[in-house]
Give the backbone structure.
Amino acid sequence: MRPFSLITTKRSVASPFRAHQSSLLGAAIAVNVFARVGTDRLALIGAAAPVGVFFNSGGVAFYALLAEAFPAELRGRGIGFGVGVGRAGAAFGPAGAGALFAAGFTLPSTAFIMSLGSFVSALILLWLFCQKKRSLELPLVGRL
């Protein structure tokens, strides 16, 4: 069994939550580390790799999370909406970072502010997981 499959296995209700939460926390940490490595090329490459891994794995885990969150008849719309919101964030994120730089923020402070989205999302997932565990209802979104 592969090591990452222990986190993402479908045997547990918690698996998509844990996988996505791990990716979000890893992304928040990796972005902050990247902002503080300095100008050494090898250090930048070494710090950029985890940023890419965690952000890409977060996107993949997002699909699994949304697939479990919506009932079958709403799954396509729910995943489409979630992906659309994510794409909007990806489009406006660099503009937000640019605005912070224009306002005089340093790279480490900008990275910290930008990483708060991932950190807050991980906290929300933890709260949703606790709610789901208490209610034992599989769909997080009710039928419309």
Observations:
- Residues 47 and 95 are 22 Å apart (CA to CA).
- The mean pLDDT is 83.
